[in-house]
Amino acid sequence: MLYHVSLYTLHAPDAFLQSDIDKRDDHRPWHLLCLNHCIIATRSGNGKLAKASYDLLITDLPAEAEAFFEMDMRKVNGKQHLPHCQKIMRAY
Asked: How confident is the model at residue 54 (pLDDT cuts 50, 70, 90)?
């Protein structure tokens, strides 16, 4: 349920906010919405939701996706995710 609410929230802002023009601020709303959506999906333990959120991240914030995956891989290596989620994260 939380995944679907975060997906709705991710698509709710206007086009200006979604354009995410100013990349200097790591606390900009669109950036945080996208990353938190992925975190929610990963922690849900549902592989299909995780894949869908990662694909959205690559589409919506392609320049930032690599850093997110590197950060999450550190958590995978630290065994903070379920085994099937670890496998999905490694694929990305």
From this structure: very high
Alpha-helical segments (H) within the chain: 2-11, 15-19, 29-44, 47-60, 62-77, 83-91
pTM: 0.80
42 is written with which tokens?
A: 């990963």
What gap in Å lies between CA 35 and CA 38, rounded to an integer? 5
> What's the number of CA atoms in the CB half-sphere (13 Å) around residue 58?
8
Q: Which residues of 11-45 are buried (b: 16+ CB within 10 A; e: fewer)?
A: eeeeeeeeebeeeeeeeeebbebbbebbebbbbbe
Question: Could you tell me the residue ranges of all domains in the chain?
Answer: 2-10+26-91
